[in-house]
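retry 2 of 3: previous attempt timed out while embedding zinc ion. Reduced batch size to 1 and resubmitted. Inputs unchanged:
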Amino acid sequence: MRFVRYGEAGEEKAGILAQDGRLRSLAPLIKDWSWAHLSEDWLAVLKAVNLDALPIVSGTPRLGAPLSDLRQILAIGLNYRDHAEESGMELPKSPLLFYKAISSISGPNDDILAAPGTQALDWEVELGVVIGKQGRHIPAAEASQYIGGYCLAIDVSERDWQFNYAGQMGKGKSYDSFTPIGPWLLTPDEMPDPQNLKIWLKVNGSFRQNSSTAEMVFNVAHIIEHVSKFQTLLPGDLIVTGTPAGVGFGMKPKTYLAVGDRIDCGIDHLGEQTHQIVAELIG
Ligand code: ZN
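retry 2 succeeded.
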């Protein structure tokens, strides 16, 4: 199933993309998608519904992030061989974990905000994994049982904020609009193989990233095993699993996003996103 949330920011409603590709409303069964709907019980309820009989949503409404109440964002750095190389860094010996602010979540086609003074705004298309069941010390062989869904994500990164100030690198990745996710959340029963997906991103129509999740250093199951040694994973936690080569920081010369630029990106089975970079005026 493909969970979708549609409507203006803060007023999204639960929808579903049916097999015929039409966006359909889940009202009155479900008002808004929550991590609670990732449970096996809820999935059984949803599977009993004839999705193709639900009312079609008219027009082309804005889409929001596909869950209303994601809990935290865990992120993995340098997780594609080619990206570690372009960054001039050695492959990590274990998944390189950092955190992003939950307030950075935005919709799949929302504007990406360039704050006053931003000078190194960069793109990172990533496979997002949402935890569906609480767990700790999860063996890799059992990790798939804890996945509630997959989504397309961008880990937007301000390299100046990331590298040039003391403290955690997540501060360069946490501004409002820096984690657009969607257009839908795909339940794991419909994901053929998360480690064999084309993943790509274009800036102003030109490919910048074009790879496969087969190139990950640590696969999704390994990441879940690793992270769950250090903390309990909760339903609604989002893990963004790293980006392939082709980011602006790795270009020669380094090339960053400018106001007015357009980003398009996609992952097999998880849809596509389109964003404009807009100047944010403060005060
Ligand atoms: Zn990233």
